[in-house]
Each structure stands twice: as C-alpha cells, then as structure tokens.
C-alpha cells in the first residue's frame, strides 16, 4: 500500500531542519533544563539523575520536533527555551560548596 501523498510533501530542507532541531536543539533544551534545575536544588542529585532523565527528555523533544509544521518555528522555540534556562542558570544564587 503506497504512502499518502499529503505526508510526502515536505522538502529536503524542511526534513533537514526538523532533524537538526530535534537532535541538536532537543539536546540543548534538555541539557540546559537539567543544569537550570541543578542550579536551584541539590545539584549532586540532579546531575546524577540527569544521566538517565536527560536521554528520556531528549528523545521526547526529538519526537516533538517532527510534530511541528515548520522547522523554523521549532528551532525558535527550542532556542528560546534554552535561552530562558540559560538566563535562569546565570542568575542562580551561588552554591555554598564549603558547607
């Protein structure tokens, strides 16, 4: 049974944009989310847990990238979210490592 033509109308550049947004942008969002969380709560526990949860979040973000209509929108969304998390990391209170 052949594929439906309406699902095959994306260009090579749109496919490339969604693949790169899912892989690179999704990893950037997952990593900055875990680092932002580690900046505000117990960083040792979050960083140890992130070895497993980062992959799960990254895989979900890869799938979500392919649900978007335009690769530019998903790239802007992923870059905006990672920028927000980066700002949260930057303004995080300093951790007291001596205690």
Automatic annotation (TrEMBL):
Record-annotated membrane-spanning stretches: 21-41, 47-68, 75-93
Record keywords: Membrane, Transmembrane, Transmembrane helix
Superkingdom, natural source: Bacteria
Protein name, entry field: DUF3649 domain-containing protein
């Amino acid at each position: 049974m052949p594929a439906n033509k309406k699902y095959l109308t994306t260009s090579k550049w749109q496919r490339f944009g969604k693949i790169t947004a899912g892989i690179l942008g999704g990893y950037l969002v997952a990593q900055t989310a875990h680092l932002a969380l580690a900046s505000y709560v117990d960083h040792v526990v979050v960083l140890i847990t992130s070895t497993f949860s980062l992959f799960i979040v990254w895989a979900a973000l890869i799938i979500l990238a392919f649900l978007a209509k335009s690769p530019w929108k998903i790239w802007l969304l992923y870059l905006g979210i990672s920028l927000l998390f980066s700002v949260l990391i930057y303004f995080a209170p300093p951790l007291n490592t001596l205690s």
